[in-house]
Amino acid sequence: MGALQMVRKILLIAYNGVTALDLVGPMQVFSTASGYSKATTGVALYDLAVASVDGGAVATSTGLHILARPFREIGLEQIDTIIVPGGRPNDNSVFDTRLVAWLAENGPRSRRVCSVCVGAFLLAEAGLLAGRFATTHWDFIETLKRKCDGATILDGPIFVHDGNIWSSAGVSAGIDLALHLVEDDHGRKLAMDVAKMLVVYFRRPGNQHQFSTSLSLQASTDTDFSDLLTWAAGHLKENLSVEVLASRSGMSVRSFTRKFRVAVGLTPAAAIEKMRFEEAKRLLSEGDLPLKRVASVCGFRDEQTLRRAFQRIADVSPSEYRQRFS
């Protein structure tokens, strides 16, 4: 980064009901990158601005108020990247028609337009997702698919890039996206330095699930199966065959398998594999146990079974995962 390094203008959109972390998370990443560069080279890399349709104090969903500049004061020709945070997608007040019109007009002029979480709904309203691949918060994937049938909405990635449109998954994924943009602009080293400074992962696997597998399984089922899954999470090393699980539930194998699949949405074997995978990720990121030992502790038959599970579920090998997160 030399003295002639370009300063990129990042415009973060604010509106009443915006999710605070969707806005300030990415903003902190860019600010930290700029501050780090200025301290080491004397050059600020980013010029950050928060703007809204009318300007003034904007109330976030937490009650925190953020002071925004009105759009009319923003030099549109200078904008490099627009960040659209999420808010309450079912609240019509979020979709101010003036904001939608502004995005429709100015989004295509910017090098990058990025949505965080359900900010993707605003991009959809502005017509910016037509024909694009995109993602959003896991709980609103199906809603966005129905709302924007001209787009391909993906439910696995932490973020998606298609043309000048970037979209990220739920809330904290905006930080992942911002780190990637810093890397794209100024290289891996600076992005890694920022991640270390903020004490966050530099990069999660691109198709990592957006919330804990064991928690999501428990949240999707009834009390009886929630208790069973909680017990299973503490006994992953043991035999957790469908026969064992059915017996613990007091059901026949056939009845248990049918009811479990209806309640959880997965076969018992698939659910247990996901829980073992989740625990293996934790062990790989937090310690240096040999892969053979990780496989044993998590209940995988052998190291090769562990490798196959990682490739199928996360599209990375256990060793690659450890290198990224340990």
UniProtKB/TrEMBL annotation:
MF terms (GO), sorted A to Z? DNA-binding transcription factor activity; sequence-specific DNA binding
| The protein's name in its UniProt record | Helix-turn-helix domain-containing protein
Keywords, sorted A to Z: Transcription, Transcription regulation
**Which organism is the protein's source?**
Pseudomonas aeruginosa
* Transcription regulation is among the record's keywords: yes
Q: Which Gene3D superfamilies match?
A: 3.40.50.880, Homeodomain-like
| InterPro entries named in the record | Class_I_gatase-like, DJ-1/PfpI, Homeodomain-like_sf, HTH_AraC, INH-QAR
Domain HTH araC/xylS-type spans what residues? 226-324
**Cross-referenced Pfam families:** DJ-1_PfpI, HTH_18
